[in-house]
Design a protein that fits this description.
- InterPro entries: Acyl_CoA_acyltransferase, Bact_Acetyltransf, GNAT_dom.
- Residues 1-156 form the N-acetyltransferase domain.
- This is N-acetyltransferase.
- Keywords: Acyltransferase, Transferase.
- By secondary structure, the protein is α+β, with helices and mostly antiparallel strands.
- It has a single domain (4-155), classed as Gcn5-related N-acetyltransferase (GNAT) (Aminopeptidase, 3-Layer(aba) Sandwich), CATH 3.40.630.
- It has helices spanning 7-20, 30-35, 37-43, 93-107, 122-130; strands spanning 45-51, 54-63, 76-84, 112-117, 134-135, 141-144, 147-155.
- Strands 1, 2, 3, 4, 5, 6 and 7 form a 7-stranded mixed β-sheet that branches.
- It starts with 6 loop residues before the first helix and ends with a strand.
Length: 156
């Protein structure tokens, strides 16, 4: 879980990773949601991975009914905004964060864990498939015109 003193750093880290990766334009209003680690920590669970004592990865875990849940049905959980700084990629931090979300969903008694991802996030897709997630194309969606999101689910 994120500590209160990490929230500003985590918000900026998430936004910077999404911009640097070309996943979002810095002028897009969604950047404000990415930066809002305070709300994510308050209204969901903000998980953090560290390397050499510094926050280097994050993900937001939420249950159905959370203001951050977009895909869930009752009895399901979701995670979003998975981000790992480029210098720490390959260390297993992204996978560790996803595994923690799987554990949390099981602890919460959920029957499935869901996520949305951009088509170009190939490294993340490899993690999801390796951990047993499968594509759910019937749930693919567009939060805005021109923004296509793929969906995956893991039955628990």
């Amino acid at each position: 879980m994120a500590r209160p003193d990490e929230l500003a750093t985590i918000g900026e880290l998430t936004a910077a990773i999404y911009v640097a990766g070309g996943y979002i334009n810095p002028d897009n209003s969604y950047i404000l949601r990415l930066r809002d680690a305070v709300a994510r920590a308050r209204e969901a669970e903000l998980l953090v991975a560290t390397h050499n004592g510094e926050p280097t990865g994050t993900v937001t875990y939420c249950l159905h009914g959370s203001p951050w849940a977009q895909l869930t049905a009752p009895g399901e959980a979701e995670f979003r905004m998975l981000a790992v700084v480029p210098a720490a990629r390959g260390l297993g931090l992204g996978e560790a964060l996803v595994r923690r979300c799987i554990s949390r969903a099981r602890e919460d008694g959920c029957r499935a864990l869901r996520l949305s991802t951009e088509p170009v996030m190939h490294a993340a897709h490899r993690i999801y498939r390796r951990l047993g997630f499968t594509r759910t194309p019937e749930r693919d969606w567009q939060p805005h015109p021109g923004v296509e999101l793929l969906t995956y689910a893991l039955p628990l």
